[in-house]
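mind reviewing this fold:
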Amino acid sequence: MANDRIDNVDVICAMKSDGSIIPIRLQFPDEDGEMHRYTIKGYRLLCNDGLFNHPDAGYMHSNYQVYKCRIIVFNKETDIMLYYDKHTGKWWIDT
C-alpha cells in the first residue's frame, strides 16, 4: 500500500453503550475495482472532534474521529490512519 488517501472505505464496527465506535473490519476497492478486506488487529482513538497529534503532520485540528489502526497486508503488520466524519457518515484511510 502506498502513502495515499483512499476514499469509499466500508467499515464494520461495534457501538459501545457510551456511544463510542470500535472499528473491526474494513474493505475498499483498488484501482482495478477489486475489493480488499482487512481485519483490524488493534486500534487507538487519536481524536474525537478536536486537537490531536498526527504522526506525520504534528498537531492539527480535526472535525473527525481519527483512529490509528493496525492491519496485516501481505503477512506484514501495517499501521493506517482511519477517519470518520460523523456529519456525513463517511470513512476514509491514509496508508
About this structure: The chain has one domain: 5-94. Strands lie at 5-6, 10-15, 21-29, 35-39, 42-54, 58-73, 76-85, 90-94.
